[in-house]
Amino acid sequence: MSDVGRIPLLLGVVLDGVHSYARLVDALSRSPLVAGMEYTYGPPLYKGTPQIVEALKTANTALEKFDAYFRHGILNREAREELARLFRRQYLARFPRSEGQDVYLASGNVLGISFELLPPLRCPRPDAALRACRTFSHDDSVLAAAERGDQIDRALRAGQLKIFLEGVQNTRRMEIPAVAKLVEQKRMKEPCTFELAINGALPGLFVHAIEPIVTSLGGGLALLPG
Fold first, then answer.
1. Entry pTM
2. Strand boundaries in 52-149, DSSP class E
3. CA distances, 181 to each of 161, 172, 184 (Å)
């Protein structure tokens, strides 16, 4: 499967409610399979409201800072919509020939959550991790390295979890049968499809790490088109 193993993949993390994004991030931060996390905040979210600035004064950890930005910049609908309008104006001023889809996709970089998974043999259940890696499409050379316990490039174990400022529910993905099926099966009232961008070398490792968390939050995973 080496011919497809390095193609970037998008996994849809389908959950009920915008607030579930914060629950997912919190769960990832505590997962024994996650080696590290990085949080970034771009304009206009960065210190974008007085409430964010005030909340940051008492935020000591990276997760507490994330909570300040998410609670007052994303979860707060009025603040979010104002920040989205500001983002659109700023983006179109920089890229005046951009189309609506360009703005929408770019808004997924305003709040950046990246994380790195442990190599399979360092996971709490290495046999299960390797089995998941074998089950899904993969890069044969990377899988062989994982089975030997060789070093695996961090980029192949890294994922970026996206929420779009211009449309936090990401309703455009409801057209995908797998997403629609999850929403119906889980009887979601406010379905949100957050997007996990990963390298295609070992997607099974991400399923192994994330699916139990997503399931515990009442959601599911779906493969998305690029």
1. 0.94
2. 111-117
3. 22, 15, 5
CB 198 within 8 A of CB 11: yes
Nearest to 170 by CA among 150, 151, 188: 188
Beta strand spans in 22-123 (E): 34-41, 111-117
What's the pLDDT tens digit per position in 154-188?
999 999 999 999 999 999 999 999 999 999 999 99
Distance CA 62, CA 105 (A): 25
In contact, 113 and 41? CB cutoff 8 Å: no
Which two tokens mark 160?
Answer: 């970026």
CA distance 19 to 119: 30
- Answer whether 9's CB lies under 8 Å from 198's CB: yes
- Distance between CA 62 and CA 59 in Å, rounded? 8
Cα separation of 165 and 103, whole Å?
Answer: 10
Distance CA 23, CA 207 (A): 18
pLDDT at 4: 46
SS3 annotation, 127-191: HHHHHHHHHCCCCHHHHHHHHHCCCCCHHHHEEEEECCCCCCCCHHHHHCHHHHHHHHHHCCCCE
Asked whether 95 and 102 are in contact (CB, 8 A), the reply is yes
Bridge partners for 34 per DSSP: 117
Residue corresponding to tokens 């980029």: 155
- Match 């961008």 to its residue by tokens: 197
